[in-house]
Amino acid sequence: MFRISKQRLLLVFLFLALFITLIACNEETKEPENEKDKQSEATGEKDAKEKDEPQKGGTIVGAMYSAPAGMFNPIFYEEAYEANVIDFVYEGLVTQNESLEFTSNLAKEWKTNDDQTEITFTLEEGVKWHDGEEFTAEDVVFTYKAMADPDYVASGGIRTAYVMPLLGYEDYVEGKSKEFNAVVAEDDYTVTFKFEEPNVNPLYTASFSIIPEHIFKDIPVADMPKAPESLEAGKIIGTGPFKFTEMVEREQYILERHDDYWQGAPYLDKIVWKVVAQSVMTGLLQSGELDFIADPNGIAPADYDTVNDFGNIKIIEQADFGYQLLGFKHNHRSAEDVENGLLEPDNWVPNEKLKDPKVRQAIAYAVNREGLIEGLLHGRGQVINSPIAKQFWAYDENAAVNYTYDPDKAKQILDELGYVDKNDDGFREDPDGNEWVLNMDYPTGNELREKSAPLIEQMLEEVGININLRQPKEMTAYVESLTNDNTDWDLYLLGWSLGSADPDPTGLWSRRAPYNFSRWNNEKSDELIKKALKAPEAFEQDFRTEVYAEWQKTFSEDLPAMLLYAQNSLWAYNERLNGIDPLPYSMYNNAHLWWVKDAK
Question: What three-state secondary structure class fits 362?
Fold first, then answer.
């Protein structure tokens, strides 16, 4: 998923060995050192060095509670579980540091022109793909041209936010032009991005993971999602510190050291991912069968105190760059558009059961978010009223409507709209007297979300809303149904990890965003999103802050989703694992520097 999409830096200190010389002295002479003492001293020095300095070798085991859907091509993947592999295998031109500033990665430097309609990158030389081929500017051009391809979205591609600002994108994607010259290789190690308009955040646009041209150049974009080069271990080729070499589908995924990694060969031999039920993760962590539990959700809040008492486990707790939501299906795609892979808002079919925004607002007042945080998160989370992370400068607590738990207000709103119980069965009928049942769907895998579903059902039924809580689906099938817009969906549960580069909500909430699963069709929202990025005004942060405040108000009033909470990230790892240097949005940082004390 946009992972989109983590703030205190954990420092690892290297302790120098202290040399202790045992000397027996008298007033006139120094007795010779005991040979056994000298040997013990040398052994102690060696042991201290082995304990405190990075050691090569070793395997670590991480756990995730749902299996990846199986797409390991970064331009097509959708889930955080797939990202657990992708993040170690592929890289972008730039990355971010602990202050969320862009820093060099595959590109070592860059320069923008005066009006910020172009940015030119100088690439690192000598970078090798996992198969030994050299990384060049042509790989960058190929990656962005693939995401701009007319067949990209129809084939399941969802990363259009990275190409939409580029020069000539609309004409190219609509077939009006056969040329796409927005990303140009000046030479093997220089590449220029050109934008339709002055770009407020060109580094964000240019930050996407790069795929190898020599692997995919003969595969049409429409066929890439089904190609072995996107799906099969051993055929996935990146520039990252680890190679994806083996897998037992839905059970285990193995990453092996890339010896020719351009920043130096990783210390670890392997990183092994295992798919493990969330209920048994902590026990395996304690026994040493697991070395770390991180994205997408880490350890369960209910297990915090237990894990904290293990003694051999370290916990990283920080505010999450994301949130859980109760989504409202405003519209559904037409069956024809689903078949043809189109996202055309003009063809969407309104969901009459949730058409009135006041109905959605009543539902929001009926949900006890604070109760969910205390009961399920054990207080390790917070209410969030806007789909912009609180860590961003753009988040405005006062701009958005705060739907505090008020079941009486929910009932009053529904009564005034004519949703009343006419047959005394305890549930409300619609204003025309027809049965009014809202279907609610949710995925398996995340225990908190699974526990939230029946609690929310109960809260809504307490104000007279008849909820049909359906059997949960495994995440892969669930996302497919959300994407295809089964027309009887009304309410859905989902979690988003937000991108950390910029508060721009285009990728999730603009009308044509593939991840806009609510099919929210709000022209004012799109106008504000575009306004917040339009130069020259948008070069001033105060201007963007003002526009985003208005957008947050629009979102919270029209309610494509009720934001439930932002839980704290609780990442845990065995103390034998060293070099962990977390970012505000991920524990996976500089994995080539990770090492274990007992490497063999």
Answer: helix
